Amino acid sequence: MRLLSWNIHKGIGGRDRRYSLQRIIDCIDHEQPDLVCLQEVDRLVRRSQFDDQPRLLARSLGLHAVFQSNVPVGGGSYGNLVLSRFPVGSRHRISLKRGLRKSRGAQLVLIEPPTGPLHLVNTHLGLDERERHWQVTRLLGHRLFRSAGPLPTVIVGDFNDWRNTLAANTLAAEGFRQVTSPVSRYRSFPAWLPVGGLDKAFVRGRIAIEQARIVRTSLARTASDHLPLVVDFNLV
User: Fold this and answer.
1) What is the pLDDT of residue 169?
2) Can you tell me the mean pLDDT for 97-124?
3) Nearest-5° angle of CA 160, CA 39, CA 14?
4) Is the entire prediction scored with pTM above 0.85?
């Protein structure tokens, strides 16, 4: 099973500042993922030509779509998007907004491949380190997250965790192991000259990792300000 996680920056290139959802679609399609977790996805926003990006991405890639709106922008919004080749069961949103900071959320989706159910969490954490630790603690302690405790679980997304402090503390204490380690092998930001491993993956339960890698194609370097993360794994 192949999973791709990517902060697509609303389809706006990191260096040329040009909007092109087709570049995002082409990058994803080239990797042929079964599961796609995207962050910073626009829906009906002026800066992205009022495109319904969740609908266009799902239609172009032929995948099921679950969109999570987090931040209102004009008459539209942006947030997280899960695309799946497999049927999608339950889906939930956990608010990770703290105080007056930007609204954030964690998207919880039950994926139903033939090999058995998978609990998939797609998120985009805050810019402040204390905020991020609060957000992960809230996520892991939330009743909706804990209700899927027995299931194999993957947490992916843009963690904004430059110092990688979440892995050894909160997540490890709950039995999660970091797939994107050592961080020096998974630098994904900024796309044109990556120095930070902000896009991460953590797993718990009966999940065997085959490989994980950052996509470094020339198209990926121009399509967004982050590079995509790809994880190949099996449910065992």
Assistant:
1) 80
2) 96
3) 75
4) yes
